[in-house]
Specification:
alpha+beta, 31 strands, PNGase, Methane Monooxygenase Hydroxylase, Chain G, domain 1, 3 domains, about 30% helix, Peptide_N_glycanase_PAW_dom, globular
Length: about 675
Amino acid sequence: MATLNQALVLALESNPKEAYVVAAETLLRLLDNIIREPQNAKYRTVRIDNPSIREKLLSVEGMKQLMLAIGFVESNGTLTVPSNVLLANVRRYREFLYERKELVKNPPKERDITPIGSVTCTESNSSTASAAVTTTSTTNIPQEAATEKSNMVLQPSGSNATAGQQRTEALCVIKSSRPFLARIEFPKVIPGNNTLLRQLELLSDQVMQYEDELLLASGTSLIPIDKLTAKAKSKLTQWQRLLASSEATDQNKEPSEKDLLLEELTAWFRAEFFTWVNALPCTVCGNEKTQLVRSTVEDGVRVEVYQCCGQLRHFYRYNDVEKLLQTRRGRCGEWANCFTFLCRCLGYDARYVFSTGDHVWTEVWSERRQRWIHVDPCENVLDAPLMYEHGWRKEITYVFGFARDDVQDVTWRYTNDHQRLLQRRRQGSACSEHALLDAIAKLRTKRRAGLNCTPEQMSLLRKRTIDECLELLANAGRVPTAAEREGRSSGSLEWRLQRGEQQTNTRYMFIPTEEEVQAKQFNIRYCCATDCYERFLKGASNRVNERITEKSNGWESRQYVSRNIFRKEELDWKMVYLARTEGTDEATIEWNFDFSVQGLRVKQIELRFGQETYEGAKVELYYIKSDGSQSQALSSLCECGKFTLQARLSGGKSWQHAQLFRQSKTATDEYPFEMNIVLM
């Protein structure tokens, strides 16, 4: 069943109250007609040019996006609900919209409203919880009624919380104090019509949207800060033990808790909060490779229009981070925009980084390291700036960082061949080096003129700028690390190959938590039907009283490295499995485990590893120790503290003939991959 997109329903409430109520009631009548007479075709279609529909319904911002999410399909001047759209999904939207409309139409008494300009998120251990958000606008959002359904306002994207957990989630409504264009409107200081320089000023102004205090409060409330902080503290403890055991004298090797929190934020953002979009799937046949037929602009927003089965779907490419907190999907532009903002929510000095090589990411200032750290949320990669040049094989020419107090040419961090970089710039016609330096100086002055800084703070900013310039120059000739030699993982294989960015792999290492150390056990399992890993502690009798300690969405989220692997869904047979990518002869996937950090070793190990082969194909399992030795005997891991589990897929007459973890799409409580370890 399709997921209820509550954010789209809530987004309607930013419209004037009277217009919102009229539009919501109009949509509710349409949905009621469909639910009451599902076989009556006339109730399933509305004409866009109908004056009543255009004025009462579609004039409200966000209504069309909501209707498309419900199941309406735009075609030939109409919005139609196809007969294959599940009525249960229509009912869910109808019920949630009705509840929200009633709350807006008949708000609670004034004493129940939070003071203007604040965001309150309340957690409760009971079956009820409440939250209220109001803004300086006249369209205040009323407090939630204390019911179980109204508690489900905004859950973190990808959340696997149980119903009980959902009832105690912090509730919040995303709001900013001003519209997007008002948040990024500043006097222009760059004269002329140079395309590159004008784009720099546009991006410099755009990051100022992050500084809206009400929006910062909304964003902060969406981050599971306690959970991420606990993980960061656990990692710091592990680091301290590791350094102590190695008798290291250089205490600068020890990371700060804030740096480790940044790692956890990046991993959470990629695994649970944001979703990558290659193309919008067809609502009729399920095709995930729909055709892009055109790009348009609606109300200043670029829109990609996809077509399949004679129907159109619209993908809105928002720059407004308030919208992105609601949709939580996109490509690298949306990812970097939203992630940089969430870094600001946690108080980091953060930059939005733009490259003319068609990619964007983030940089975050590390107080511990006293330098800017490269962070790519799409890849879940930190501090590997040369990966674009050496892993993705991109030609780096211009890269710029934009923050609330600075603009910097950081190209020199992302290439180690500065001579060739200068040659490319001279051969290009973007602008002269003199004009570029002049523009950056003007933009830096513009940004810092708006700061409420003491002379001492301004002096520190200037020193940081000078130190960074020296650091960038010293990057010439630096040897790339192993991580920087890897290719790209975000986006579909086809999309990456079209861009010349060969497949890559995310890295994750299983390290025991404090609870696992105390229990002397480690357990991990994966369900291909839900595409979710579960880390858990066993009770006294195996699954009796077992407790799940972590969930992670996506088969790649807990792998260490892989090549030519993807998750296949068979729409006809209703089966799912991991297989080689189409057209490849072999593939590998690895999971990495390190118990030695805590001074532990394997005492006993059990492994379930589902595999299917056809037409002579092979799936081979190898257990690789830290010294590089490998075996196909599971018993070889006994008394081992660190190892890698590697699966190799090859042979057969087709890429589909070697499969991992094949199971029915409905088998959501079965785990074809499970590892249980007793530690000592």
